[in-house]
Structures are given as C-alpha cells and as structure tokens.
Amino acid sequence: MSRRQKQTYTGEEVLAALFALSSDDESDDNLEDSEDEGDDDSAGTATNSLVEVETSDTDDDDILYQLAMDWSDQEESDNANDEGEDGDSQWDDPEWHKTPFSAPNVKFDNVNVVPRTPFLDTDGPCEFFEKFFEDDVIKLLVDQTNLYAQQRQTRYWNDVTYDEMKCFLGVLLGMGVHRLPKFKLYWSTDPFFHVQGIADVMPRNRFMKLLNNFHVSDNSVAVPRDDPAFDKLRKIRPLLTKMNSLFQQHAVSTYSQSIDEAMIKFKGRSSLRQYMPLKPTKRGYKVWVRADSKSGYVYQFDIYTGKDNSGAGGVGLGDRVVKFLTETLNYTNTHVTFDNFFSSVALLDYLFGKNIFATCTVRSSRCNLPVIASVQDAMARGESKWCTRNGVGYVKWKDTKIVHVMSTAFSPNTILNAKRTQKDGTSALVECPQSVVEYTKRMGGVDRFDRSRGHYSVSHKARRWWIRIFYFLLDTAVVNAFILYQSVHPENPMTLLTFRVALFRRMVSGHSFRCRRSSLQGSSYVKYRVCGKKRMKTMGVPDSIRLQQGNHFPIQTSKFRRCRLCSSRTNNKRSRIICGQCNVSLCVAPCFGIFHNN
Q: Three-state SS string across 473-503, please?
C-alpha cells in the first residue's frame, strides 16, 4: 500500500494533462507572443497559482477530473452572475441589436380577391369557369387531340369538335361529383353504378376514345432528351404556361399571400415523382403554389422537376422558389408568408429590397441568425426574446416548444394575447408576439386551396404521367372560378358542390352525342336484314318531312309508347320513333314532321 503524500501542481501542468497542450518550447509563435504581451499580474495569477491536493500514485486521473469539474462549476456560476446583472448580455451580437423598428403603413387586409373584368348579375358558374378554360384553351385541346389521333392512326376516329370537347370536360367534372373506381362503370347496366346524367351525353366508347387520344402538345416538335433545352414537362407545358397567365390576369392581386407546397397524387413511374413521408399525399408531383392568404385563390404555381444543375450562385432551393414566385410582386407592398423550408435572413433582405414584406418561421440552424437562436435556455410559456437587424425582426417565443419567427412587416416587440389550449383541454390567454399571431393568421392560403381542390376532384387513375397534372389544372380552374363567383355574388352563397353540379349541367346542356350517324344522318330509308330471313326491310323517315335545321332528330326505339298526336299505341307492325332532343314519342314518320312543324 503506497503512502499518500502532498503534491503541488501548477495550473499550467494541470492544463497540459487535461487537454494535452504542448509546452512553451513546442507552442506556436502566436501563443508565445500572446503570453509575453499579456498583463503580468493577471498572467501570474492564472498560470503560476499553486493548487495543493492530496494524491496517490494511482489516482492522478481522478484528481484531474475533479479539478476540471470544479472549474466548470465556477465558470457556470460566473455566467450566471453575468446573466443576473443583464439577462441579454451573453447574447450581444455585432449585427443584431435591440432596436425596434416601426411597422410599414400598409393595410394588408384591405384588398380582397375580385375579378379584374366586370360580370353581369345573371352570369353563372359557367361564365366564371370560361375565364380560365377560354376558347383558346379548348381549341388547343381540340387541335392537339385530333393531331395526335392522326399521328397515332387511331381506327374509326372522327375528329372531335369544339362542343364535343366542352362536353368531354363537363363529363369529367360530373365524374368528380359521382366518384366511381372506373370510367366504364358510369355506363354500366347495373343501376347501382349507372349515372344517367353522364351516360346521356355521349356513349362509353366515344368517351374512352377521346380520353385515350386526349393530348396537349405536338410530339413531332419535341426536343430530344439529350438536348440541353429538353423540358421534362413538355407534354403539358403549353397548358401550364397558359393557365399561369390566366390565373393572374383575371383576379386582382391582394396584399396578403402565402407560399407553400402542394402534392399531386401519382404512384406511377416518372422521374418527377417525389416521396414525402410526412405529407398526407406521400407520393406524387410537388407543386410550389402562391395563393391568397384569406380565400386560397391560386395566382401562380410551378411544378418541381428535380435538382437544378444550371448553377444559382450558391442559392438554395427555397430561395429560388420564393424569388421566382414573387417576380410579379416587386415594388407592390405585398406581404408574403412562408414556412421554414424557404426562409433565410438573406431572402428576407432581398425581398425587403424589392419592397415585398415577409413573415416566416425559421430554423435555428440557419446562417446569420442572432446568437439567441442557438442558445438553449429555459423559458416559460408565453415568454419571448427579440432583436432586429436592418429592418428584419427576429422573435424567439416559447409555446409548447420554442418557435423562431422573422418578419419585416411587424415589429418584434409588440405583444398580443393569443388563445392557446392547455393540457387539460381548456383555453387560456397567453402572451404572444404580433409576428407569430400574423404568421398563424396568414399562412393557410395554400392549405385552403388544397382542401377545396380535394372536394369532388376529377382526378382518376391514369398510366400517362401528365394526365394527373391536367386534372390538377382543371380542379384549380374550378376552385378559382368558385372563389370569384362568391366575391361577385355574396348575397347568393353557393356551396362548392352546388357550383360543380351547375357547371356540369351548363356545359353539357343542349348537346347529345349518342345518335349514330350511319343510321340517322345517312339516307332516308335504311335497309337491314331481318334475322333468320333473306328479305330486306326498310326503316327511316322520308326527306320531305325530315327536319333540315335544329337539333331535332328521330331515334329508333323498341319501347311501347303512345303517339303524342294520334295517341295510338306502337307495336311491332308500325314505325317506332322518338325525338332525340325533346323525348317526344311519335308513332309514324308523318306525325314526327307534323308535330315539329307546328
């Protein structure tokens, strides 16, 4: 057993043992200079003080560890004393300081979403929807669909017309209200699936042929994949550009807007598909959206196509997205809100220089934030700390957890009362900075649009990757038209369901494409062979009484009905016809002509 003895160590020897510091002979020149130039009294006190402890030959490490613990405790106490003198002294920052700035004299809630062009009081949902799917858009769909059918050499193809394409879009809107797993079920003979309002517009085969040949762009002018100008969205690009322009053209830009991401559901194979495990829609296309904070009206959107290798001078993805979506808002005093995915101090400085105000949450690990953002200190619920830098206000607020918010529109030192839910379920008023309150109020614009788009969506399963994007554009046009309709007719409120049903009925009204041209628009008398016999039988309406104008046309039927004129009951020995437009039953061809001529 070794005899315990007192050993004397200098502070320099202890530091060398603790941190493996080099001796004076092996130290750098800078360290030697700093030691020589230091104050003699303080240096002697720090490095030459003697510490007397009892040690044994085998317990040196334990003693050094104990010494280290004593020093750390003393350092924490010194910091605590400094904090007691001034609570914010340890957060002093040369760039950030506690100087409040005055909020801009702009009332962000005074401008609402209204149409740029006036509407009549008699205008219904169809007139608002046609502002976005206008004649040029429908003609683009007609021309490209017919061109694609010719390039594909589709068998038994009849060119689609303007009215037929309009009815095709109306049928898609009607299918969004009546959700069925497959398109063909709408024409099913099973009354559980059959939807008469859709089946009366066009036959099933014609609808499927239109859907299979539906197209937006010309494949013959597409750029090869290895070309630098190759566009991943080439299949839908003409419609994306057109709709982005129309959304901004037909509505007044408000002063409070939000920027966020939305998802278009798609589980097929595509290089554009993203996986977002924390989103309700986990797989699909990511869309950056700029919408009105109050109503959810979409002004601009951009589909994410993957990593940009063009080089942006070190600017992150969030900065590029916000700058692109706010190009049309420069020098307009508009306030935009976005979350911590996009936010940075440099971005707020850029927007503030463009006279665009912003409020956003921010991650504590971002660059150029004040020191208090990274300090983990105990804060009571409702407590906040703030500082400013060149018109940018930073707030650190404690709710259930720490929240970091930056704003150039609201002063960080303004405190309001916010209603928060306690653990027992009751509500209580908690002190909350104004920037946090305004962020919560104005951030939900894109979420409101996404919620409205999800109701009665026209989206269906599809193998072609761009069809889902087209369904997104169609739903967005309906939601924007509904918002504009509500702003023009506040005294006559209409639900989104009623709006979609009225839009469907108006788009397909007066049109029916169920008649067969071979039997109804050919010769007056059509010959057909009776089953089991060699003789031919004629059937039809003479040209002398056949209507040459209007939408009235006879349809052959086998149902027993009474004639509208002579009240005779039809049977197998007499002609059986019915008007395809007004659904009037007539027994013989002369009655058909007499009825409509009168």
A: HHHHHHHHHHHHHHHHCCCCCCCHHHHHHHH
421 burial via Cβ count (<10 Å: 0-12, 13-18, 19+): exposed
pTM of the predicted model over 0.85: no
> How many CB atoms lie under 10 A from the CB of residue 401?
7
* Phi, psi angles (nearest 5°) of residue 317: -65, -45
Reading the block at residue 321, the tokens are 């997205």
- In a domain, residue 248? The reply is no
User: How far apart, in whole angstroms, are the C-alpha atoms of residue 469 and residue 332?
Assistant: 31
Residue 325, class by beta-carbon neighbours within 10 Å (0-12 exposed, 13-18 middle, 19+ buried)?
Answer: buried
Averaged pLDDT, groups of 10, the chain, 598 residues long: 53 57 42 41 39 39 34 39 44 80 89 92 92 95 96 92 95 95 93 92 93 94 88 94 96 96 93 90 95 96 83 73 95 95 95 96 93 90 92 93 95 90 86 94 95 94 93 97 94 91 90 54 42 50 42 52 57 53 58 56
Q: Write the single-letter amino acid at 560.
A: F
Mapping DSSP to helix (H, G, I), strand (E, B) and coil, where does residue 597 land? helix
Which of 530-540 are b and which e, b meaning 16 or more Cβ less than 10 Å from the residue's Cβ?
A: eeeeeeeeeeb
pLDDT of res. 535: 53
In this structure, what are the phi and psi dihedrals at residue 429, rounded to the nearest 5 degrees?
A: -85, 125
- How many helices (H) and strands (E) the chain has is answered by 18, 18
The answer to whether residue 170 is domain-embedded is yes
> Considering its fold, how many domains does the chain have in total?
4
- The boundaries of the domain holding residue 396 are 97-115+350-436
In eight-state DSSP terms, residue 539 is E
Instruction: Determine the Cα–Cα distance for residues 466 and 303; give it in Å rounded to an integer.
Output: 11
The reply to whether 206 and 137 lie within a common domain is yes
Do 130 and 207 belong together in one domain? yes
User: What are the φ/ψ torsions at residue 408 (nearest 5 degrees)?
Assistant: -110, 5
The 3-state DSSP class for residue 46 equals helix
Q: Are 455 and 296 in contact (CB under 8 A)?
A: no
> What is the dihedral angle through the alpha carbons of 226, 303, 167, 206, rounded to the nearest 10 degrees?
40
- Tell me, yes or no, whether 539 lies in a domain: yes
Using the 8-state DSSP alphabet, how is residue 570 labeled? P
Residues facing residue 395 across a β-bridge: 386, 405
Residues 208 and 135 in one domain: yes
Helix (H) or strand (E) holding 169: helix 162-177
The answer to whether 514 touches 203, Cβ cutoff 8 Å, is yes
